[in-house]
């Protein structure tokens, strides 16, 4: 008598599936935040002296260097003021010279009693008054020359200048208050990326610092990676250079800032971006994303026991690292994770399968 096939007696044969142990690896945690780029410095260019704008020496929106000439205010009134101040210096210098001669002559006349001591003292006092008046005149000359120098409005820092706020021929007001705004300049290389850290993350970073697992962002310049809205890779790098001293009571976040190089000048103040902040290192188990099944609000991974029976294990997932998904909780290092055949209805919890040894490999960077 011929024996019946095994599947005729006990159902269909067990399906072969590829299984592998999770890849154990020490991974770097990168926490993601949104933010915008801001200039490292911004300056309002204002007139220091009043007068008519004579010339403009820049193109709206161009790059400028420190000391570049931007505006010229009509110099003629200031040239006249300098010449007048020089004449005042010369007049007072003549008074000093005369007073010095009178003191020299008075010294010998006083010894011979030709003049009284009182008159001699008066001559010495006149010399001191003349010297003081000369000092005042010299200070006035320096002020006049400084005002003349300020008629050339120059760039106080390197960066990109805005459009001009006044045209040639306009009268502008100078001084420490109420001075006319001529333009603004913002630095673009390097540039800041400003973002907000949640209270929970801030507490976690602080505890990692206290335990020695992660340096403080305020002291060590924690590395960051950035990508723009139209980019997929985290190709831009920088370092945290500032963390605020208090959390916002309304937002529950603390402001942080990273310094980023901008050699090609692509990054413009105001641009939105995503940032990854170094959050420490830890030992993790990694599996392919394709091995994870969504079951309503849960994430499940199928494993195969020693008896070949499929088991479902709820897992807590982390980020993608080298093309694999981090499993924070729910798997053991010795679990045999099902890698393929998940769409087959036979591969379900309680089902019998034939495990075939596979391997989980991380993608090369």
How would you sum up this structure in a few lines?
The protein is α+β, with helices and mostly antiparallel strands.
Walkthrough of the structure:
The chain is of the alpha+beta class. It has four domains: about 90 residues, conserved putative lor/sdh protein from methanococcus maripaludis s2 fold; about 100 residues, Efflux pump adaptor protein, beta barrel domain (Elongation Factor Tu (Ef-tu), domain 3, Beta Barrel); about 60 residues, RNA polymerase II/Efflux pump adaptor protein, barrel-sandwich hybrid domain (OB fold (Dihydrolipoamide Acetyltransferase, E2P), Beta Barrel); about 80 residues, Helix Hairpins (Orthogonal Bundle), CATH 1.10.287. Helix content is about 25%, strand content about 40%. The chain is built from five helices and 21 strands. A six-stranded antiparallel barrel has the order 2-11-14-13-12-15. The longest helix is centred in the N-terminal third of the chain and has 36 residues.
Strand content: 35-45%
Strand order of the largest sheet: 2-11-14-13-12-15
CATH H-tier superfamily of the largest domain: Efflux pump adaptor protein, beta barrel domain
Work out the count of structural domains: 4
Coarse structural class:
alpha+beta
Overall pLDDT metric: 88
Helix content: 10-25%
Outline, from the CA principal axes?
elongated
Q: Please state the CA-atom Rg, rounded to the nearest Å.
A: 40 Å
User: Can you tell me the CATH topology of the largest domain?
Assistant: Elongation Factor Tu (Ef-tu), domain 3
User: Can you summarize the main beta sheet?
Assistant: 6 strands, antiparallel, barrel
- In the CATH scheme, the class of the largest domain would be Mainly Beta
CATH architecture of the largest domain: Beta Barrel
Distance between the termini: 62 Å
Which regions contain 5 or more consecutive residues with pLDDT less than 50?
1-8
């Amino acid at each position: 008598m011929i024996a019946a096939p095994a599947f005729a007696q006990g159902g269909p044969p067990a399906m072969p599936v590829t299984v592998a142990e999770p890849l154990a690896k020490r991974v770097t945690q990168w926490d993601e935040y949104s933010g915008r780029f801001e200039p490292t410095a911004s300056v309002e260019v204002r007139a220091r002296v009043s007068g008519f704008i004579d010339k403009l020496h820049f193109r709206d929106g161009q790059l400028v260097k420190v000391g570049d000439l931007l505006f010229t205010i009509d110099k003629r009134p200031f040239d006249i003021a300098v010449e007048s101040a020089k004449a005042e210096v010369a007049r007072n210098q003549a008074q000093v010279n005369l007073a010095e001669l009178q003191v020299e002559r008075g010294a010998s006349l006083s010894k011979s009693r030709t003049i009284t001591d009182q008159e001699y003292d008066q001559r010495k006092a006149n010399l001191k008054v003349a010297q003081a008046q000369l000092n005042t005149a010299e200070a006035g000359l320096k002020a006049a020359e400084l005002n003349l120098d300020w008629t050339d409005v120059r760039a106080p820092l390197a960066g990109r200048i805005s459009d001009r706020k006044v045209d040639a021929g306009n009268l502008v007001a100078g001084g420490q208050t109420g001075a006319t705004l001529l333009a603004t300049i913002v630095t673009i290389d390097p540039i800041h990326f400003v973002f907000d850290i949640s209270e929970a993350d801030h507490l976690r970073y602080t505890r990692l610092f206290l335990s020695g697992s992660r340096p403080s962002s305020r002291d060590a310049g924690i590395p960051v990676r950035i990508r723009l809205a139209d980019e997929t890779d985290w190709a831009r790098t920088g370092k945290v250079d500032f963390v605020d001293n208090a959390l916002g009571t309304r937002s529950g976040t603390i402001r942080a800032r990273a310094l980023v190089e901008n050699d090609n000048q692509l990054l413009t103040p105001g641009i939105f971006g995503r940032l990854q902040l170094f959050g420490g290192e830890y030992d993790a188990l990694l599996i392919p994303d394709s091995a994870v099944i969504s079951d309503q609000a849960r994430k499940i991974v199928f494993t195969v026991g020693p008896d070949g029976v499929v088991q479902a294990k709820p897992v807590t997932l982390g980020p993608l690292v080298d093309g694999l998904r981090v499993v924070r909780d729910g798997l053991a290092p010795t679990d045999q994770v099902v890698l393929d055949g998940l769409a087959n209805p036979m591969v379900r919890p309680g089902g019998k399968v034939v495990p075939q040894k596979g391997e989980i490999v991380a993608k090369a960077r």
